[in-house]
Amino acid sequence: MNNLQNARRTIEKIDAEMAELFEKRMKAAEVVAEFKKENALPIEDKKREAELTAKNSEFVSFEYQPYYESFIQNVMDVSKKYQKRVLEGMRIAYSGVEGAFAHIAARRIFRCGETVSCPDFDSAYKAVEDGACDCAVLPIENSYAGDVDRVLDLAFHGNLTVSGIYDMPLGQSLLAKPGTDIDDITEVRSHPQALSQCMPYLKRHGWKLTQAVNTAVAAKSVAEGDRNDIAVVASKDTAELYGLKILQEDINENKNNTTRFAVFTRAECKVSPKDEHFLIMFTTKNEPGSLGGAIAVIGEYRFNLRSLKSRPTGNENWEYYFYAEGEGNIDSLDGRKMIHDLKKLCENVKIIGSFSDEKVLNERSAE
């Protein structure tokens, strides 16, 4: 037997072993997909993929590393395709209609699955609590308008946890029916906040401004109407969805306008050793210095408190709950001690989220 025959037999043997290992890997990928569905996590995790590629590359000789990196990336791509198939039955609730910013965020976070339109925040949240949907994508804060108080109240009174937070820049564009020119416009429709964000641009043109329930509803009414002199302020994604023409992009005055969306799920909040961010809610005892003491505990264990917000509990007059976002791992020894000490100081402490990082949703991908 010559060297070529020996080499081919070796390859055949290795291919048979790899086929068996491939099946085992795909079965493990299915378990991962089910976990992601249960915990409302997106399929792709670029950071995890990079870490895995770098770690595994160390197992092969230097001259093979570029080829191995390509190989392992192909394996992960196949795995993601299979995971998407498992997650196709996932249902994602959002508030608004198709084309609303929450709908766009949901589609960017979850590339597969069915998005479910809900009339308001409460019904989207309840759809997950009742099991009609697997998760809900809801806004919690806007850099221009501030907190979304109703969503924070739902988080406090409800039973859902947050699996991740995603920042989506909100670029507003001027849209109209095909064949319409900017000189034809006499009226502009949109949500009051969207109109406000673009007011300097709109005032320069002197158009009549008409308020709508949200940007997507305004876009739909313009697309289905028979007037060619009406434009709408909405996102570029909405233009594609409703077949509208983009007359002018990025007309909002504040180019840094961003909304933070949280993904709410029924899954128990799981804290990973790699998590770097946490969300907690607590109420303090009605005693002097109780809030200061709670803040001091968080600082004592060297956790960076990024945000602290108060809201009325709705139970009694002048009774408040506190929503806190922090940096650090609360699964660490210091983290467990911090939570333990907080519970001694506060009437109740609720961990509603723990995740590795806060991702930015661009036009191509959430991950």
Question: How would you briefly describe this protein structure?
Answer:
The chain has 367 residues and is an alpha/beta fold. Helix content is 41%, strand content 26%.
Topology, pairings included?
Layout: H1 3-38, H2 46-57, H3 65-86, E1 91-95, H4 101-109, E2 114-118, H5 121-129, E3 135-142, E4 146-147, H6 149-157, E5 161-169, E6 173-176, E7 187-190, H7 192-197, H8 199-205, E8 208-211, H9 215-224, E9 230-234, H10 236-242, E10 245-248, E11 258-265, E12 277-284, H11 290-300, E13 304-312, E14 320-327, H12 333-345, E15 346-355, E16 359-360
Parallel strand pairs: 1-2, 1-3, 5-16, 7-8, 7-9
Antiparallel strand pairs: 3-4, 3-11, 5-11, 6-9, 6-10, 12-14, 12-15, 13-14
**Poorly predicted residue ranges:** none
Helix content: 40-55%
Output the number of helix runs: 12
Shape: flat
SSE string, helix = H, strand = E?
Answer: HHHEHEHEEHEEEHHEHEHEEEHEEHEE
Number of strands: 16
Percent of residues in beta strands: 25-35%
Overall mean confidence score, pLDDT: 88
Query: Strand pairing plus helix content: what structural class?
Result: alpha/beta
Note the gap between the termini: 51 Å
Largest sheet: 7 strands, mixed
Radius of gyration, in angstroms, nearest whole number: 25 Å
